[in-house]
Automatic annotation (TrEMBL):
<keyword id="KW-0408">Iron</keyword>
<protein>
    <submittedName>
        <fullName>Cytochrome c1</fullName>
    </submittedName>
</protein>
<keyword id="KW-0479">Metal-binding</keyword>
<keyword id="KW-1133">Transmembrane helix</keyword>
<feature type="transmembrane region" description="Helical">
    <location>
        <begin position="225"/>
        <end position="243"/>
    </location>
</feature>
<feature type="signal peptide">
    <location>
        <begin position="1"/>
        <end position="26"/>
    </location>
</feature>
<dbReference type="InterPro" id="IPR002326">
    <property type="entry name" value="Cyt_c1"/>
</dbReference>
<keyword id="KW-0472">Membrane</keyword>
<dbReference type="InterPro" id="IPR036909">
    <property type="entry name" value="Cyt_c-like_dom_sf"/>
</dbReference>
<dbReference type="Pfam" id="PF02167">
    <property type="entry name" value="Cytochrom_C1"/>
</dbReference>
<keyword id="KW-0732">Signal</keyword>
<keyword id="KW-0349">Heme</keyword>
<keyword id="KW-0812">Transmembrane</keyword>
Amino acid sequence: MMRTIKKLSLSAIVLVVAASAGAVIADDSDVREWRPSSAGNDVTNLSSLQRGAKYYMNYCLGCHSLEFKRYQRIADDLQLPDDVALENIVFTGEELADMVKIAMPEDDASEWFGMAAPDLTLVARSRGPDWIYNFLHSFYVDEGTVAGTNNRMLGNAAMPHVLWSLQGLQEAVYKESDNGSETFVGFRTVREGRLSHSEYDRVVRDIVNFLDYAGEPIQTQRRQMGFWVLAFIGVFILLAYLLKKEYWRDVK
């Protein structure tokens, strides 16, 4: 737990320093065009869910709880042995039966970030997986904010870019039109992260996948059950139609 909070605190400090120090601006050819896109996540991908749980516990749990879930349920659903789960994902509890909470007091969170970080158990159901996916791709350097970053999907977001060491730092690029107004074009990398764009994209998809699962763990079984329910209804309608024909066969 403490190593997670320390990691997040260090990331925030380094991010502010990097943002305030500025960065070298590349050529216009380095601008990556941006538009909202689909997450394309798959909650049946067990390996992705396991990686997503790892990333969430190490990068997100310092601030965001999943207080409607127990570690045991996550371990069972993701097919993690109890000893592996205890060692690798249980950072804010002592037993697998504990709920996934955070240690940060709400008063401290409000003082540091302006508000307490929301619980993310149901964020995929309220916002949608696509929104989370685009949100985690949309942080950019903004020296006018406390955290040193801003977000295109959620303006003036209090959340710092905790994944900056993986993605790197990027700036928002605007194009000036003939009437003097500015139009957002995309992002330009000003500091490389540890991962390439494709590698970071996979990390984001894994986190989105895990949050999609967390919001509705039963969704895979529900979809499978729905197929058989529809099949039963189809057979019932066919039998009802044949029975109706039999009853009305002699009616002129």
